[in-house]
Specification:
This protein is an alpha+beta fold. It folds into two domains: about 280 residues, FAD/NAD(P)-binding domain, CATH 3.50.50; about 140 residues, Elongation Factor Tu (Ef-tu), domain 3 (Beta Barrel), CATH 2.40.30. The protein has a seven-stranded mixed sheet with strand order 6-2-1-7-18-17-16. A hairpin with a 3-residue loop joins strand 16 and strand 17. Helix 2 packs parallel to helix 10 and helix 2 packs parallel to helix 12. The longest helix has 23 residues. About 45% of the residues are buried.
Length: about 450
């Protein structure tokens, strides 16, 4: 425990000193607000962590692409501009990784721990929090990550409703609409007479048999030691479904009945259905294709789907343990719980996916909570920034089918005019940077 500050009447309580909690504490302290940061490690360990250091990376040491024209690159640069501790640590401890930002994980965590412990406005308390604290002395931020302790998860479920808390992520890939072959893919909903809400990729029998053979042989991500690979029957990975028989997918998510191909007038042998991921129709979700197939194999195998030969994947599928809320249903503006005003969620428990996205949610929660202490309303980042795109996913997604997501261009608003594909990332980066600067100046946010 590092108690260097006298107790004050108003302070922010943060539960969890992972990536999001550490970033939230840092952002609040930078704005002159006191913080009590609770971390149960090393007093109580998780199945995945090995140390008591803050922001320990338990999986990959990569923070993905560092290209300034990529969606995650734009998000990183916005965080750098806002004084992110996590990004400062990553830049200071980076290791060679081509175009990716990868870090020396031990030096990375040590850098963050040292900065947090030496900040006079942050008091670190090494103990487990089993119930969500009341925001009596100031805002509370829950940033306990994908391995939220059982006791705290139960309390969160009690507050939000058990149906609004999930313990496993089952994510299907998302593809860019303009990368599909619309001469082969057709729009229809099962048995509907109208244009339909789904895009359908039709298979002949031969195409289907080649596809399932390739899928059955594809490399998969193995469950980690702390993961119990028991799946919900209504959300099976597509390759697990295939293990029950080669025709099982044809009687599940690839069922072709009621979807006649307008080119033949007959139902195809099988279909892959794509559901719009945003109102603009620029991104589509592969319905029922949650998977543990590796990302490189997903790209190879799923491009065998008719009409997806040149598919651009905005997000790959995955299945892993992750405690998160159904954000569109339970979150109010400023990342607060609608059922418990004054309690904010940050990191993966809020419904984002990935290291960088968790840090970004922590950054925003820290800023919003600090403004609350200072008597100011939360001011969301402007549309067009990566930070706003991330929040839009949490608030505007369909609640019933909500799944965490990495940042991707499908979450951004569409560009206002026709721009060559190679220039879109740069254009989005330029627009986002300009809007972020306006936000900083107007709100004195940094």
């Amino acid at each position: 425990m590092h108690a260097r500050t006298a107790r004050t009447e108003t302070y922010i309580t943060i539960v969890g000193a992972g990536l999001a909690g550490s970033e939230a504490a840092w952002q609040a302290a930078r704005r002159g607000v006191r913080v009590r940061l609770f971390e149960m490690r090393p007093c109580k360990k998780t199945p995945a962590h090995e140390t008591g250091e803050m922001a320990e990376l338990v999986c990959s040491n990569s923070l993905r692409s560092d290209s300034p024209d990529s969606a995650v690159g734009i998000l990183k640069n916005e965080m750098r501009r806002l004084g992110s501790l996590i990004m400062a640590a990553a830049d200071a401890t980076r290791v060679p990784a081509g175009g990716a930002l990868a870090v020396d994980r031990e030096r990375f965590s040590a850098f963050i721990t040292k900065r947090i412990e030496s900040e006079p406005l942050i008091e670190v308390v090494r103990q487990e929090v089993e119930k969500i604290p009341e925001p009596a002395c100031g805002p509370v931020i829950i940033a306990t990550g994908p391995l939220t302790s059982d006791a705290l998860a139960l309390d969160l479920a009690r507050i939000t409703g058990e149906d609004n808390l999930a313990f496993y992520d089952a994510i299907a890939p998302i593809v860019a609409a303009d990368s599909l072959d619309h001469g082969r893919v057709y729009r229809a909903s099962r048995y509907d007479d109208g244009p339909g809400d789904y895009l359908n990729c039709p298979f002949t029998r031969e195409e289907y048999e080649r596809f399932i053979d390739a899928m059955a042989a594809a490399d998969r991500v193995r469950p980690r030691d702390f993961e119990d690979p028991r799946y919900f029957e209504g959300c099976l990975p597509i390759e697990v479904m295939l293990e029950r028989g080669p025709d099982t997918p044809r009687f599940g998510p690839m069922k072709p009945v009621g979807l006649p191909d307008p080119r033949t007038g007959r139902d195809p042998y099988a279909v892959v259905q794509l559901r719009s991921e945003n109102l603009e129709g620029t991104a589509f979700n592969m319905v029922g294709f949650q998977t543990r197939i590796t990302w490189s194999e997903q790209k190879r195998v799923f491009r065998m789907i008719p009409g997806m030969e040149n598919a651009e994947f905005l997000r790959y599928g995955s299945v892993h343990r992750n405690t998160f809320v159904r954000a569109p249903k339970v979150l109010a503006p400023g990342l607060e719980l609608a059922a418990r005003p004054g309690v904010l969620l940050a990191g993966q428990v809020s419904g984002v996916e990935g290291y960088v996205e968790s840090c970004a949610a922590g950054l925003l929660a820290g800023v919003f909570a600090a403004r609350k202490v200072l008597g100011l309303a939360p001011v969301p980042p402007p549309e067009g920034t990566a930070l706003a795109a991330l929040l839009a996913h949490l608030y505007r997604s369909e609640a019933k089918n909500f799944q965490p997501s990495n940042i991707n261009f499908g979450l951004f608003p569409p560009l206002g005019r026709k721009i060559p594909k190679k220039m879109r990332g740069r254009k989005r980066a330029e627009d986002a940077a300009g809007k972020l600067e306006e936000w900083i100046v107007a709100q004195k946010i940094a």
